[in-house]
C-alpha cells in the first residue's frame, strides 16, 4: 500500500468538491499509482470516528455517487447506539446511562433495529446502480476477506447475517431508491458486549410504544478467534477482495473527515439534520410512560403521553395532602421535552411556584 498526500477533485453529477486526503491501494507487487484506463470502482474511508458524520457521509454518498462505478465505504464509530428511522429511543435504549457515559444516540435514515457500536466494530457499505447491484457478490467479498486473514469458515446465514461457529459476527441491511442501491453491514472485531447489553436494555418502567422492538442476537467477537485482528487489517482485506472482484490493481482511496463538512454543503446539511434533537428524539413514535415514586410526603404515580418526544398529556395520581402541588406539577410537565432536562425544568418550576425547595429530593428516572 502506498500513501500519498495530495488533493482530489471529486466530480458528481451536481457538484465538484475538493477532498483533501487521497491515497492509493495497490494489490499484488505493482507499485504504480497510474491507471491505464478509468477505474470502474471507487473507495472511501472515514478517518474520523464521529458517528453522526459517518452516517451522514453514507447518506450523502448514496444520493450523489457515480452510478457508473462500484463504490465501497469503510468506517467505524466511537460508542454509539444507532436506532432505525421508526424506532423509539425511550423504549430501545437506556438513555440516562448513555448520557452519563457519553454514548452517542444516532438515528439512521433507513429502517431496522437498534444496534450498539464502538471502535471494536467495523462498518462497510457497498453502493451501486440498481441494475448492477448484487447482494450475493457483496457478501462473498466480506466472506473472502475474513477467510484471507485466517478466520475459520465464515458462512452466510439467512438474508442478513454472517456466522462463524454458529455465532453471528456480522449483520447487514439494504436500501434501494430508483437506480441507486446499497448494502451495508457491521463486523464485530472487539465490541464491548457488556456495553451492548447495558445500553440496549430498556428501563423496566411500564413503557408502551408503537415502535419496532429490537432483539439482541447471539453474537461473538472475531478477536476471540484471531486475537491480533484490527480494524485496519480487515479494511485492507475488504479493499483487496473488492479490487480483485472488479479487476483493479491500483485504486484511489479518498479519506474523509469532519473538515470536509465545510467543503460539501449537501453533506453538512445531512450532518446537521442527524445531530438535531428533533431528528434523534423528536422523530419518535407516540408512546406512553408511567412511573411511580415514593417520597416522604407520599406516593406519586405519573402517566404521560408523548408525541415527537414532547409531553402532551399528563395524569398524576397521589396520596399527597398537597393537591395544589400535584396540579402545579401536572401543568408544568405539559409541553416540555421528554428527557432528563425537560423533567428537571418542570420540577424546578413547581418548586419555585410553591416556594418549597425540598418537595422533590430526586429527579424521577426516565428510560
Automatic annotation (TrEMBL):
Domain (BPL/LPL catalytic) ranges: 66-250
GO biological processes: protein lipoylation
Pfam families to which the protein is assigned, alphabetical: Lip_prot_lig_C, LplA-B_cat
SUPFAM superfamilies noted in UniProt: Class II aaRS and biotin synthetases, SufE/NifU
Class of this enzyme: ligase
Annotated EC: 6.3.1.20
Coiled coil: none
MF annotations from Gene Ontology: ATP binding; lipoate-protein ligase activity; lipoyltransferase activity
Catalytically driven reaction(s): L-lysyl-[lipoyl-carrier protein] + (R)-lipoate + ATP = N(6)-[(R)-lipoyl]-L-lysyl-[lipoyl-carrier protein] + AMP + diphosphate + H(+)
CC per GO annotation: cytoplasm
InterPro entries: aa-tRNA-synth_II/BPL/LPL, BPL_LPL_catalytic, Lipoate_protein_ligase_C, LipoylTrfase_LipoateP_Ligase
Keyword annotations of the record: ATP-binding, Cytoplasm, Ligase, Nucleotide-binding
Pathway assigned to this chain's UniProt record: Protein modification; protein lipoylation via exogenous pathway; protein N(6)-(lipoyl)lysine from lipoate: step 2/2; Protein modification; protein lipoylation via exogenous pathway; protein N(6)-(lipoyl)lysine from lipoate: step 1/2
Family under the similarity heading: Belongs to the LplA family.
Protein name in UniProt: lipoate--protein ligase
Lineage: Eukaryota, Amoebozoa, Evosea, Eumycetozoa, Dictyostelia
